[in-house]
Specification:
The protein is α+β, with helices and mostly antiparallel strands and 385 residues long. The chain has two domains: 194 residues, Jelly Rolls; 96 residues, 3-Layer(aba) Sandwich (Malonyl-Coenzyme A Acyl Carrier Protein, domain 2), CATH 3.40.366.30. The strands form five sheets. The chain has an eight-stranded antiparallel sheet with strand order 1-11-6-13-5-4-2-3, with helices on one face. A three-stranded antiparallel sheet has the order 10-7-12, with no helix packed on it. α4 packs across α6. InterPro entries: JmjC_dom, NO66-like, ROXA-like_wH.
């Protein structure tokens, strides 16, 4: 199923992106839910899928984490089931990510889907990332407040909320409507009737995360071993003082690491890591290169695994980054890398120029046999089975 969003991206980015929230009426219309509430409940029963149940009973909040065995004990109001990274596991639902690929792939995070009964929600809270909330089945009322100092409250160890706020948006969303919320704006939504919501979230690493990942990388690579030196040291009249030029020299040592090629490579490698499990299944037995050649020649399409992060660096043609790993790129294959990383689906005619290059075909075969890309027909066969 192909979804198309009625957003003029240049105008949207200039007026709303990280500036102000907005309701986009009928932005995905006509809207067809890619899965049912029962299918979502089935995903929440799986061991590898991150899910939680948020409910409110007699004024008290409760949070349970999956996998769940049953939902029969739940009432008809005041609870929500939330399932993370559904795009990793449900190819049709993953199609909801495609209209947002006018934005950089490395910024896209995952698709969270929630099913809520009347009154169900997670309470007023603030996210530190951009999110597009798509309304599916049912209706939901959303309130969004202005940025500011909003006291935090913690009604349950697994639930961080904020105090109530004065809304600048107070709207009911129906199927096909989208609510965009930038980071830092308090919001609260609850279902008016049984409802499905689809949240397309965006990744926004903070400084602590970036430094932590880089420090881990240096330890693994045994890097960052340059030591401080001061061959021009002079006698000190204040032995307890760290002088300004010494601070600057230490800072320069640290900044030198950040300007080295290793930093860009580590950064790309880190950004290519998925935060949630992937439905990764290496091909057994592996396809031969001849089999892959024949299937592509026959016109079969290649599809990137749902949730897989495949990235490359501007100006760097010798390496790409897939699922937290760096891969050397064969000579002359950078245009192929761009195709695979920029597009979710690769058409066979786009690969014609590479099939006659044995080294490139071998490299592409490695990616397919690893489960990172698959033939669309194989997924359809599994669905029919």
């Amino acid at each position: 199923m192909a979804y198309h969003v009625a957003i003029h991206w240049p105008d949207f980015l200039q007026k709303y992106w990280q500036k102000q929230p907005v309701v986009l009426r009928r932005a995905l219309f006509p809207f067809v839910d890619p899965l049912s509430a029962d299918e979502l409940a089935g995903l929440a029963m799986e061991e590898l899928i991150d899910s939680r149940l948020v409910s409110r009973q007699q004024g008290k909040w409760h949070v349970q984490h999956g996998p769940f065995e049953s939902f029969d004990h739940l009432g008809e109001c005041d609870w929500s089931l939330l399932v993370q990274a559904v795009d990793h596991w449900h190819p049709v639902a993953a199609g909801l990510m495609e209209p947002f690929r006018s934005l950089p792939n490395w910024r896209l995070d995952d698709l969270m889907i929630s099913f809520s009964v009347p009154g169900g929600g997670v309470g007023p809270h603030i996210d530190q990332y951009d999110v597009f909330i798509i309304q599916g089945m049912g209706r939901r009322r959303w309130r969004v407040g202005a940025k500011g100092d909003h006291p935090q409250v913690c009604p349950h160890p697994g639930l961080l909320q904020v105090a109530d706020f004065t809304p600048i948006i107070d709207a009911e969303l129906e199927a096909g409507d989208i609510l965009y919320i930038p980071p830092g704006f308090p919001h609260d939504g609850y279902a008016l009737e049984p409802a499905l919501n689809y949240s397309v979230g965006f990744r926004a690493p903070n400084q602590r995360e970036l430094f932590s990942h880089f420090a881990d990388y240096l330890l693994q690579q045994d890097g960052g071993n340059q030591r401080y030196s001061d061959p021009e040291l002079q006698p000190s009249t204040a032995a307890g003082c760290i002088q300004n030029h010494e601070v600057q020299q230490l800072r320069d040592m640290m900044q030198a690491l950040l300007t080295h090629d290793d930093f860009a490579h580590q950064l790309a490698q880190s950004l290519s890591e998925a935060k949630h499990e992937l439905a990764l299944e290496p091909v057994e037995p592996p396809f031969t290169e001849g089999e892959i050649y024949d299937r592509l020649e026959a016109g079969e399409r290649l599809v990137r695994l749902g949730g897989l992060r495949a990235l490359y660096l501007e100006g760097e043609e010798l390496v790409c980054f897939i699922n937290g790993e760096a891969f050397s790129v064969p000579d002359g294959a950078f245009a192929l890398i761009k195709l695979l990383c920029d597009q979710t689906v690769t058409m066979p005619n786009q690969l014609d120029a590479y099939l006659s290059q044995p080294e490139v075909l071998a490299w592409l075969s490695m990616l397919i046999n690893s489960g990172y890309w698959y033939f669309e027909a194989d997924m359809q066969s599994e669905d029919e089975a």
